[in-house]
Structures are given as structure tokens and as C-alpha cells.
UniProtKB/TrEMBL annotation:
Name of the gene this protein is made from: wrbA
High-level lineage: Bacteria, Pseudomonadati, Pseudomonadota, Alphaproteobacteria, Hyphomicrobiales
SUPFAM superfamilies registered for this protein in UniProt: Flavoproteins
Protein name, per record: NAD(P)H:quinone oxidoreductase
Molecular functions (GO terms): FMN binding; NAD(P)H dehydrogenase (quinone) activity
Flavodoxin-like domain: residues covered: 6-192
Superkingdom of the organism of origin: Bacteria
């Protein structure tokens, strides 16, 4: 059977969500996936970005490392994993802008039955990690994705993360994700890949019968 194809489309300003994204990718690869790691681009100008110290420099650095996600990436994938920092308890506008470009695929039904999952980070404790992940479940349901939560299906889940997806609190960007949080993200990559493989097998069997 061909490798499950996993798209990890994330937005990160200061690096915490980027680190989680790479851990999710690591777990997916461990489980045998082919991975595309993509960073969503800003849609505000440098005049706005320069008001937040380090934003321009961080964006330039990450944009040299990662391509921007495209509609073609979503069509290619067997699983789509979204990553976002929290913005007032909900999804970042940057990631939402990418999701909003998928309307054409949605209309054609080309996202139905793909696995979907989410992870995220926030600056402050109780800053909205869980509400942010749950807010992304709504557009995922509209897209027809099979939502893959983490539950407590791995020992890592009893140390960090949430049953909805991997998370991190950066305490105003002073703390990077530790091994406990990275273990949850790696588990998320493995779990999504495993579910995507099962869904892919079902589609292949159905097409040949």
C-alpha cells in the first residue's frame, strides 16, 4: 500500500507552533507517512508587523524554510493537520485565510473522508488553547474531514497536551515546548497517519470492489 500523505499546514509567529508542527511531522514520518510541512503567510503589511518586535524577522526566517500551503497540497493529502497560535481564544486569521481558500475543493467533495486534526499554542496559561482547537473542528466538519482527536490513547497524554490536540503555553514566548509536549505532538502525528492509512485502505478496497 502507498504511504499515507499528510499535510501539516500551520501558522507560527514566534516559533512555538512551528516546533510543535515539526514534532507532528516527526511522528507522522515514524508511522510511515509522506509529509508536507507548510507555513501560512501573513496578509498584513510590514507596517503592521513591525509593531510587534521580531515579527518581521521571524516571518522572513520561517518563510525561507517552508513553502506556503496551497489548494493542491490539500487535494494531495490523505490527512490534513492544522496548527495555529491562539488569537483571543480562537483560530488565527492567517490559518483561517488558508482554510477559506479550500472552498473549491469542498464544493467538488474532494476533501470528504480525509483525516483531519489540530494542534496549537498560546502565550498565557488558560489563554484559550482548548477553545481554539475546538473552534477549528467546526470548519473541519464542513470540509468533510474525519476529525481525529487524541483522547488519552497514549501515556504521553497524561503528562501534557489535550484530548483535542497537542498544545503548548509559551508564557509570553519565554518557554519553548518541552519533551512532554513534543511527545504528545509526535503521538498526534502517528495517530493521524494511522487513521489516514485505514481510511485510505477503505477507499482503495471500495474502488476495486
Amino acid at each position: 500500500m502507498s504511504k499515507p500523505k499528510v499535510l501539516i499546514a500551520f501558522y507560527s509567529r514566534n516559533g512555538s507552533t512551528e516546533i510543535l508542527a515539526n514534532a507532528v511531522a516527526e511522528g507522522a514520518i515514524q508511522e510511515g507517512a509522506e509529509v508536507r510541512l507548510r507555513r501560512v503567510r501573513e496578509f498584513v503589511g510590514t507596517d503592521v508587523m513591525s509593531q510587534a518586535p521580531g515579527w518581521v524577522e521571524s516571518a522572513e526566517e520561517m518563510n525561507t524554510k517552508y513553502d506556503a500551503p496551497t489548494e493542491a497540497d490539500a487535494e494531495w493529502a490523505d490527512a490534513i493537520v492544522f496548527g495555529t497560535p491562539t488569537r483571543f481564544g480562537s483560530i488565527s486569521s492567517e490559518l483561517k485565510s488558508y482554510i477559506d481558500t479550500l472552498g473549491g475543493l469542498w464544493f467538488q467533495g474532494k476533501l470528504n473522508g480525509k483525516a483531519g486534526s489540530v494542534f496549537g499554542s498560546t502565550s498565557s496559561k488558560h489563554g484559550g488553547n482548548e477553545s481554539t482547537l475546538l473552534s477549528i473542528y467546526t470548519p473541519m466538519a464542513h470540509l468533510g474531514l474525519v476529525i481525529v482527536p487524541l483522547g488519552y490513547a497514549d501515556p504521553a497524554m497524561f503528562k501534557a497536551g489535550t484530548p483535542y490536540g497537542a498544545t503548548h503555553v509559551s508564557f509570553r514566548d519565554s518557554v519553548k515546548p518541552d519533551e512532554d509536549h513534543l511527545d504528545v505532538a509526535r503521538f498526534q502525528g502517528r495517530r493521524v497517519t494511522s487513521v489516514a492509512r485505514g481510511l485510505l485502505h477503505t477507499r482503495i478496497v471500495g474502488a476495486s470492489s
